[in-house]
Specification:
Elements: H1 14-40, H2 55-78, H3 83-99, H4 101-104, H5 107-110, H6 119-133, H7 135-152, H8 164-227, H9 230-250, E1 261-263, H10 264-271, E2 277-279, E3 286-288, H11 289-309, E4 316-322, E5 326-333, H12 342-348, H13 353-364, E6 368-373, E7 379-386
Helix pairs in contact: 1-2, 1-6, 2-3, 3-6, 6-7, 6-8, 7-8, 8-9, 9-10, 10-11, 11-13
Amino acid sequence: MERVVVQIDSDATLPFWRGAQVFRFASVAYAIGAQIVSVNADTFNHSGIRAYSHPLISWMLIALLVIWSGVSGLIYAFELAPRAPIVVLELVITALLTISTVWVVRPEYFHHHQSLPSTFWITNAVVSVALLWGPIAGGVTGVGFSLLSLGIEQQFHNIVTDATTPILLTVGVTLGIGARIVSRAQQELSAAVRMQAATKERERLSREVHDGTLQVLALMRRRGADLGGEAAELGRLAGQQEQALRTLISEQAPVPGIDESTDLRSQLQAALPTDANFSAPADAVQLPSPVVTELVAVVRTILDNVEQHAGDGARTFLLLEDLGDEVVLTVRDDGVGIPDGRLAEAESQGRMGVSKSIRGRMADLGGEALLETGPDLGTEWELHVPRIDGQDEGRE
């Protein structure tokens, strides 16, 4: 059995998350370096003012920052736990570490410097929110932490010139958009792979049914007609099942979109009985999918009429031509033909197969159905479908 096996990561944003942890560990190194410099600074602006009022507590907070960064980084990178509660906890810890600046740093110092965990490290929370919840949440988080930092530093008057807000906002929005695009692309790829696998399986089953069951049913139909009597009835039933199976196979194709095109040739081949003679171009004959669906329905109606009215032993011939500006499909049988006046009589009796199922459908497509028939002359339908500008002609 032919199978399609394609491995797709369950989380398309996983590379983003892992890359973000590289940034996280770099920001931890920066925060530790800034802490060492600040604690060891004897003065601020040579005025004799020390940076920290509680150096020991500041080191405890930095230790919390390091531990949390390691734990959350491993969870994010290797999906060790659901990310949503971890992101919420990260927001809380980041906010508390930022606010703790006022507890351990002298006002004279932090009014002119960044908050304790550093803006660089605060960016991690913005990145996590953007990757998990998208650009809007990421942008709002970036602006929120920017305002929190400016408030602690009492630098609101510099909000226009300070780089913190545009940097955090840009990071949140940009990464959020990137994560959404990748997630959407992964969903589309997964759907395409599933459709490909289902299509190949349908094609395999169609080939097996066509090469086995349909051939046997077609043989039973022909032999039953030749033998007559009860065998003829069995042959007729076999013919009905053959046609039902062909219809089922042709209808198993995935439903295409309105703007998509389909190969008319392959769809006709799937719908035709095994004893029909079909001639078509070597290349695909591409038409809009709704047009192909209607044309195949018209052909089925014609074939049903051949089966019911053309007489025993009638053969069917189909010719598909791609003329560039139009597609012409000729369906002919060598049966008994249609007597003069028979179509008008059928229409008056409410049997609308020709007028609606054939001519009506062709008119809806902007085409026409031409009929040539007569007693003992067989029946020939010539179906013309014009191409509209921009349709793929399916030829080099």
